[in-house]
Structures are given as C-alpha cells and as structure tokens.
Amino acid sequence: MKAVFKTDRGRVRQHNEDSGGFFLNQSGQRLAIVADGMGGHRAGDVASEMALTNLQKLWGDTTVISTADEAEEWLKVSIEKGNTEIYEHAQKSSECEGMGTTLVAAICTNHFATIANIGDSRCYIMNDTGFQQLTDDHSLVNELVRSGQISKEDAEHHPMKNVVLRALGTEKTVKIDIKTIMFEEEDLLLLCSDGLSNKVTEKEMIQTLKSKQSLEEKAVSLIDSANNLGGEDNITLVIVEFLDSESGETS
After folding, report:
1. Which residue among 65, 66, 123, 130 is least enclosed by CB atoms within 10 Å?
2. Dist CA 171 CA 168 (whole Å)
3. Is 5 helix (H, G, I), strand (E, B) or coil?
4. Which SUPFAM superfamilies does its entry note (predicted)?
C-alpha cells in the first residue's frame, strides 16, 4: 500500500486550520485522516489538531484490525473520545468557544477500507467501476438538494454553501457516518477537505488520479488546481493506493 499526504494554506487564508496525515498501527495497517477546523477565532486549527492527535495516538497503540466490525467499532469509540476532548477543551477556554472540526478518516487494510465522516470533508474511491463519492456532506446545501429544494447546480453557488450541520467537538455527542467497502489492487482512495472539492471538479480529479504521475505528483497537481482556481480555502488531501503485496512497495 502507498499513501501521500499534502496540505496547503491556499492563496487567501492567513492560517491553515486543516490537519491530516496517514499513520501506521503496530501491524502496519494505515489510518488516513483529514480534518478541517472552524470557529473560535483562530481555534479551528486547535480543534483539527486535537482530532488528529487523538486518533493518531490511539491508532499507534492498536495492534491489528482483523474485521470490518472491529474497524467500525474502533472508529466509533475513538472519534467519540476525540469529540469529548474537543468539546470539553472549548468549554474551558474562552478563545476556543464554538470551535469544531470536520473529520473524514479511513482505516485501510489489505482487504477492506472503513470510512468515517462528520461534516463536509470527503472520501472518494476510484476503482475499476469508476469514480464515486463515498461520504455524504453534512451541510445545509446538501440537505436542500436531498429534499429537492435546490438542484446540484444551484448548490455549487449557494451563498450558504459553507454552513456545516454536523461537526466534531461542537456538541457533547456526535453522530458519525461509518461504512466499509472492499479495497482491491490498484484502487485509490482520495480524502480531502472542501478546499479541494469546492474548487476541483470530479472530472478534473479523475483526470489527475488516472494520470501516469506518481502519487506525490498527483497530490501536488490537485492542490495546484485548487489554488489556480482561487485557493480561497485551506486545501488538504490524502491519497491511498492499494498495490499487489508482491510488489513490496510501501510509503
């Protein structure tokens, strides 16, 4: 398995409130994470970093994930713990009041990937059946689309496009979407913050991911595309590729 992580402040924001990365547990399985912080003056970066650090530590202490049920339970329990830590920190610190973060995380094993998300950071898969968004945005405009009040085209330019209905750390409890998919040789997972998905179309994502570039070059190309289209937001992504174990390639 190979993976690459990239984050960029963008061309407008003064600070990068995104966090992310990919991490190994004790058996070498990967956990990919993207978190997009928000609120509380500059405390968005505090929330996203706390979410990342919490999951990274718990994952490092994990020996092995053998089944999809184990992966789903691990994500549920670990993310709920992170939610409590962020929420309680915000209650104690006035400058962090109201802070929260989106989160998309994927446990990647040799046979399956289990994805959890809160907010509007996304996970896509590209495999032999095509390119698909695996996560649902927990956003106002997505609810308006789902209820038929506006079209997908309207959603792209809606003035309240950035309103998130669900985030990590803003309430005592949090609802998490979790699903497991089969992960096969040459499949690609793309996790990203909305700084990428709001700027780069799915068609452009597909073209980049299908190119002959290395994973590193693909990540740079996607970030460059978002910046060239304005770069108004922080841009963060992780790409994970499953390879034949006989190739012996890891990163």
Report:
1. 130
2. 8
3. strand
4. PP2C-like
Evaluate if pTM is beyond 0.85.
yes
Question: Domains along the chain?
Answer: 2-136+164-246 (3.60.40.10)
Q: Which two tokens stand for residue 49?
A: 């970093």
The model's pLDDT over 138-187, given as tens digits with 9 standing for 90+, comes to 999 889 988 999 888 788 778 887 789 999 999 999 999 999 999 889 99
Least Cα distance to 74 among 27, 41, 132, 125 occurs for 27
The answer to whether the CB of 244 falls within 8 A of the CB of 4 is no
Q: Is 47 helix (H, G, I), strand (E, B) or coil?
A: helix
- Residue 132 parent element (H or E): strand 130-133
d(CA 118, CA 139): 10
